[in-house]
Amino acid sequence: MLRLRVREVAEAKGMSMNKLSQRSEISYHIITALFRNPYHVIRTDTLDRLAKALEVPVTELIEDVSEEQRKRELGQSV
Description:
By secondary structure, this protein is mainly alpha-helical. It is built from 5 helices and 2 strands. The protein has a two-stranded antiparallel sheet.
């Protein structure tokens, strides 16, 4: 299962959701959804724009996690 690391990378770079929204030209509402839910489905072009705005390779914004970890993070029964 793929997990987005947008929030972690943005916070490490000291970039707010508002600034990331402006730099990437992605709706603030989408950025908020990505920060709240790292399993949110996004398009590859959106991922590319986020990577460019954060000045990182796309591969830094995704990670492979187990289904059990996903359920724990989302507060579901394992």
